[in-house]
Amino acid sequence: MLRGALRLGLGPGLLGRGLGTRREGSTLGKAEGSGGYRGSGVFPVSSHVTFRTRGPGPRWEDSGPLGAGDWHGKVLEIKKKIQSILPGGAWSPLCDTSHLPPEHSDVVIVGGGVLGLSVAYWLKRLEKRQGAIRVLVVERDHTYSQASTVLSVGGIRQQFSLPENIQLSLFSVEFLRNINEYLAVVDDPPLDLQFNPSGYLFLASEEGATIMENNVKVQRQEGAKVCLMSPEQLQKKFPWINTEGVALASYGLEDEGWFDPWCLLQGLRRKVQSMGVLFCRGEVTRFISSSNHMENAIGEKVTLKRIHEVHVKVDHSQEYQPVECAIVVNAAGAWSGRIAELAGIGKGPSGTLQGTKLPVEPRKRYVYLWHCPQGPGLEAPLVADPSGAYFRREGLGNNYLGGCSPAEEEEPDPGNLEVDHDFFQEKVWPHLARRVPAFETLKVRRAWAGYYDYNTFDQNGVVGPHPLVINMYFATGFSGHGLQQAPAVGRAVAEVMLEGHFQTINLSPFLFSRFYLGEKAQEHCII
Known about the structure:
- By secondary structure, this protein is an alpha+beta fold.
- The chain contains 13 helices and 18 strands.
- The longest helix is centred in the last third of the chain and has 18 residues.
């Protein structure tokens, strides 16, 4: 019975059902009782929650030397502040609290990368009335120095094995090609993604040729422009490739290539801020929730949980700020598994839905940049070798980016972002030099490491609500292709939250319940 219900899919959207948090003038409705969302039959898990009150506080600005008039104004301002804390005076805080998150938000998005920002964008774009939904984005790395988004190679392709992934990328490439129609902000300069439509070139050995043919058939059925090439055709079009060991190749003719990830990130952030989305620099450390114990038709015990409050530890402080909310979106990328654990996900008996973890963990990947004067020219696509090595051109100065995913038993320690240069010498360069003889003389100029939000179950995204923690939604686990699919994924998550079901693209195979059911949505084209 439970398994059957999980396969049926989704119910009414939480926001669409009128769950809100704002006590004053909420357009999303008001839940029963005075304790947030504790309706009938639901009791709080925590026994006591302490709220800290705060006011808006003054903002001090350093405007240089003061003249006589300015000094007089400052003196009056200081007198007013002193009077405000004397007996009988109106209370006004003396500290600046502008860095703190709000006490209430309809939606709290954990993670301010492109996936989290895309969810925020589509929530605001699809809301029934402007300002109807209050959205807060919590991001701990405000510089994005370790963000997967900006450390990626910025590729986009439709050459996947699953129809859902192909559809996601087709939607996203249309978004990217028309980005200023979506993300334009009045009086700000237009965005330039520097989209390079040079395509992807996948190479297959004799062993992988049949799989490639089947993949291309699916890709064409979904509307992707992809062609198959024999070794002879490959050699003729790209004479710099050594076709030894290549039985077949697939080449993206349209809407594939690479773009500037930082530009997309900043464009989304700029746009959602103009739409009223709030940002907080901090880290989510705790969820306060209530539980409802039930039995299904066959007597199985089920515990439903609802998060009422998110605790955010603000940067450079040991204190936390509680934020009441209706919905939490887990878009924390490589760390989304930890956020799920904070919500109690996976903390139950083994083999049960309650004990099913979110199988997303950080996997470290290296990206190397090298120079090769005799390397492939401007027509070079992003090449994916059967060995797992890949490369693409970077700019116009005979520079190239590339790398290779390690074998499972050779996964590097994700505890830091240090680069293993020996990995390039031993695992990457030999394959590159074999495939492109000119790379025999390449010189590595620099390298960096980033994280995949790696789904160990089937290397595919997790989208939509959790079946037991009913107001936590996921946008994570894309295992390296989250950046390119972010515009479509954000819309899908927003649709489920607002309407209760997917509308533009049916992503039911990517629901969390598949981990419990053991139904893999296996993606075979992972780089």
